[in-house]
């Protein structure tokens, strides 16, 4: 098996019917970087910047952040890296940064909410990213967005940092791509505004599933109760793909489901052409997609999701499809 996956590293991720898939990996620390070349990932679709903060004993200084992003980009050697701005709070605890005790941390003061309330922290990070990517491409995305207005606020701060850098004569990134993570259900009713506001969208299916189904992602007793391949959640994902197509805004999915062959199959059937997963998942997912006819599966998925009195679960339908189509 391992040898079989190793043989696929240099193989282009293209489905049997010729659909090019942007297979990327998730990362958060420098130790992850060697996996980029080893796994054959085309880029880093999610770089969790909070990990540098979580393993430190004090707040990383501006220069440390910049140096870190610089090393990441250097080691990525031209493959695109999508940095996510700080996603602390909720399940991501930074010991030296204590908010108030919260009864519902998942719904609390976290991620972009915290960043907008502590703009100094966010501006330091944005400046570090701008400087590290000077002369190259900077891709950044914002976690836990609830209202499109929050994105405009972050963009405003980014603009201030860009102006500051150019005023003092610093080189800027040649290309800037600004994106949002879609992981809060409220954004589903702002899809048209969202898709026109950003350069790309990345679905955080771990949190989106948690908030859509009202199940704590860390509590197996309830999170295993509902199938991520159940019709309700897949219909949500279908709406997101369609909105992306309407506006020609690229949509990626970077949650854990992208790394399981059967759910990755569901994503391709829904029309996702870009996914990001843990490095170890790349081999099995690539092996799956090389043997897949995406359009044929698309028809099957569409039928499965339109079925209001289903006999088989979507998971079963996908399993049967895989068995019948090699
Ligand atoms: C997600 O929520 O799906 C996601 C990719 O982000 P994280 O797991 O870091 O919350
Ligand atoms: Mg998340």
UniProtKB/TrEMBL annotation:
Family to which the UniProt record says this protein belongs: Belongs to the PEP-utilizing enzyme family.
Protein source organism: Mycoplana rhizolycopersici
Subcellular location field: Cytoplasm
Domain of life: Bacteria
Protein name in UniProt: phosphoenolpyruvate--protein phosphotransferase
Full-sequence range covered: 427 to 752 of 755
């Amino acid at each position: 098996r391992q040898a079989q996956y190793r043989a696929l590293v240099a193989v282009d991720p293209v489905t049997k019917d010729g659909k090019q898939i942007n297979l990327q990996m998730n990362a958060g620390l420098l130790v992850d970087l060697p996996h980029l070349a080893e796994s054959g990932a085309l880029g880093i679709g999610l770089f969790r910047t909070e990990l540098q903060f979580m393993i430190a004993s004090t707040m990383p200084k501006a220069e440390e952040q910049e140096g870190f992003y610089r090393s990441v980009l250097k080691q990525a050697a031209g493959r695109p890296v999508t940095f996510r701005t700080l996603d602390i709070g909720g399940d991501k605890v930074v010991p030296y940064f204590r908010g108030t005790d919260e009864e519902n941390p998942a719904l609390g003061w976290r991620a972009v909410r915290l960043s907008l309330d502590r703009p100094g922290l966010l501006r330091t990070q944005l400046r570090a990213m701008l400087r590290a990517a000077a002369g190259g491409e900077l891709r950044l995305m914002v976690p836990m967005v609830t209202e499109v207005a929050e994105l405009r606020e972050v963009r405003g701060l980014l603009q201030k940092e860009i102006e500051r850098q150019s005023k003092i004569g610093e080189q800027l990134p040649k290309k800037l791509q600004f994106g949002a993570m879609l992981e809060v259900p409220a954004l589903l009713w702002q899809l048209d505004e969202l898709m026109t506001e950003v350069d790309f969208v990345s679905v955080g299916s771990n949190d989106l599933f948690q908030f859509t189904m009202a199940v704590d992602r860390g509590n197996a007793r309830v999170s295993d109760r509902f199938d991520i391949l159940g019709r309700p959640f897949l219909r949500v994902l279908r709406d997101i793909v369609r909105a992306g197509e309407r506006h020609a805004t690229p949509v990626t999915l970077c949650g854990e489901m992208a790394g399981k062959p059967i759910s990755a199959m569901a994503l391709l059937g829904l029309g996702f052409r870009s996914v990001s997963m843990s490095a170890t998942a790349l081999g099995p997912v690539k092996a799956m997609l090389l043997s897949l006819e995406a359009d044929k599966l698309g028809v099957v998925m569409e039928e499965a999701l339109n079925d209001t009195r289903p006999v088989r679960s979507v998971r079963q339908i996908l399993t049967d499809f895989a068995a019948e189509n090699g």
